Amino acid sequence: MRVDAHQHFWARARGDYAWLETIDAVKPIRQDYYPADFEAYRARHGIKRTVLVQAAPSIEETEYMLGLADATPWIAKVVGWVDFENPDHRRHLERWARHAKFSGVRPMIQDIADTDWMLRPDVQWAYDAVCALDLTFDALGVPRHLGNFQRLFDRYPKMRIVIDHCLKPEIRNNRFDDWAAAMAKIAAKTPVHCKLSGLATEAKADWDVATLKPYADHVINSFGAARVMWGSDWPVVNLAGGYEAWRAAAEEIVKPVDAERIFGGTAQEFYRIS
Fold first, then answer.
1. In which band, very low, low, confident or very high, does the pLDDT at 154 lie, cut at 50, 70 and 90?
2. The pTM is what?
């Protein structure tokens, strides 16, 4: 089964995508995206299931995504959002955990100024709830978070965790070594998974396969194909060449022996997609 382990839909009129409306660099994708807009890519690449990931820090967006999933058979799982600073939001996790297509949550850590936010005592209830309810946790951050993510992953060894976008290495600035060492340590010391996604967006506009390959190879070699899953990050990937360019690059980078796992099997197992 081919799975796109990371994609988004949004309707701007819902009003909770602040980043989309205020950041000039994302103007090219400042429009609505619905399941019908994704059908051509799905058909062309034989994508049987997708994982729909939150793009707004609101309970309402998670409800919206679950509605889309209910109406769209090929949306296999939804990764939503709760306010980690509000313990009362455990009730939402408990309610959604009963929904067959709800998988887990993703706090938008990359946008939080406090690098140590994820380790604050007042947000630990949320990780405990994720573990207790057997949900997933998508780790969204940037390289400055690598040390703290290592601490977090060590603290919750039973939490089902996947790193989004390879932790966004600074490819455009050729900053490989520190990121690579920290990612290798996480891979060696924890059971965490990693999404092969988002790399093109972190490179300069004229990226090619050779630009991305060292970073992708390092993730695959460190985590192994059984813990790596491919995601398009569509429509954000439209800022960096689009779905077709990123898919073609990934297919050229991924060895045939690993392709079944990375383009489907790993996501199917991690997100429990039937």
1. very high
2. 0.97
